[in-house]
């Protein structure tokens, strides 16, 4: 998979809004909330142009009953894909370029909190968001055809920011 990061694009929010409506209809009444996550949700930073949706559901097992509907929307059903308790789906366009990821978790789970804390922390701390953006640009140049190398290169930074984000999130959530 080619690794490409591009400047923030204002159309990403609209693409999220459009796709979230289709996914909500497909997953049905089990959906509690849908969030825009990932770098496309953080203003002013470079990102891989893939829209990440985080879906909170009442019952994760019921998501499996809707897999066929997700396939009809063009998603590949990936199961937990390395994260216990998740249901993961990915979508490509007609040229084979990845366009969307759907991460589905039980509502209010630790995984949901972790993703939302990271996103909100980055939005509230633009200096850390810019450090992340620069790291992603550097890694995309270093690993243009190696998604594993790119992801591994981000791992330490993400874990460090995630720790800060969870502390920040906890303090701000209680206010």
UniProtKB/TrEMBL annotation:
SUPFAM superfamilies: Nucleotidyltransferase (SSF81301)
PANTHER family for this protein: GRPB DOMAIN PROTEIN (AFU_ORTHOLOGUE AFUA_1G01530), GRPB FAMILY PROTEIN
Protein name: GrpB family protein
